[in-house]
Amino acid sequence: MMETVRFRLNLSAEKMLAYYQGAAQQVVARASDGRRVQFPAQWLRRFVTAEGVTGLFEMRFGADRKLIDLQRIAD
After folding, report:
1. How large is the average pLDDT for residues 8-37?
2. DSSP string, 2-71
3. pTM for this model (two decimals)
4. Which Pfam families match (predicted)?
5. Which percentage of the chain shows pLDDT scores above 70?
């Protein structure tokens, strides 16, 4: 059974640089339902712009709690 979690991110370009430089490897966010979610920063690479990463995201993960998919669903 897959579960879906939505959360908003507003990470500056400087913050994303820390992920690229290896200073941080995990992203932690608060989901819209109040849960704390943590996932590898590499999942954000395709969403990085010159301003960083912003928007409303939806992640899907399996029963084993492994991340399956991450999509930006709104800016």
Report:
1. 93
2. -EEEEEEEEEEHHHHHHHHTTS--EEEEEBTTS-EEEEEGGGGGGG-BTTEEEEEEEEEE-TT--EEEEE
3. 0.91
4. DUF2835
5. 100
